[in-house]
Amino acid sequence: MQLKLGLPKGSLQESTFRLFKKAGFHISANERSYYPAIDDPELEGLLIRAQEMSRYVEEGVIDVGITGNDWILDNHSDVLAVADLLYSKQTLNPCRWVLAVPNDSPFQKAEDLAGKRIATELIHVTEDYFKEHGVSADIEFSWGATEVKPPVLADAIVEITETGSSLRANKLRIIDTVLTVKNQLIVNKSSWEDPWKRQKIENIAMLLKGALLAEGKVGLKMNISKRDMDQVLTILDSLKNPTISTLSDPEWIALEVIIDDNKVRDIIPQLKRAGAQGIVEYPLTKVIY
Question: Is 78:72 a contact under the CB 8 Å cutoff?
């Protein structure tokens, strides 16, 4: 039994490989190969552009794949989304498709662009966006380098951005968000009805979500005396309930908690001053609730 897994080729490839590694799957591919090696004999991988992924999943060429909801919507694909995977090329923040115009443009909102030319790769979603705003505009497919087209080749663009740095570098300003992108694990409907494939897909989804939950978090464990417990718990009050277990010495307990790694530098000195001892910080690979 094998599950055909589509992985996004291009900007999301390396971050997707890193995510799968944290989930327990080691994937490797050379630059010219579209068939990555996966250390799970039950998975057969195929690298596909995110723009095309949902079509191949819908057609059953592959059973399951990762792509953004932007391309699912743009392709009008009839697939099942079994997990939202909130990550992007550089960060864990979602990307956005935004409506942008030159800094010195008089346009301030979508309604100002009636009859104007809009360049984008996301044709159908952009058309739907302007219809919702009651605006008739000329939506033109862009083959790339979309940011450089205004004001000569287009009046505005709808382009994807993660940090906005490329838009700023090209002297563009955002006037609206057209769509916030969610990467999703999508499944062919027939494959979902197969009991073996369904369980395999559910296992993968659980591990990927667990790996994402662990991003930016660390574990802390420490020993504290019972007389200091209230003070320590006050410091940890804003966090999830810690795990508390007894030690051989009845006057001491062991405490363990998961926290955001950017809080550790502030929390550890406070815990030490409150009486915690043997404080250990450790990295997390997966967090599954």
Answer: no
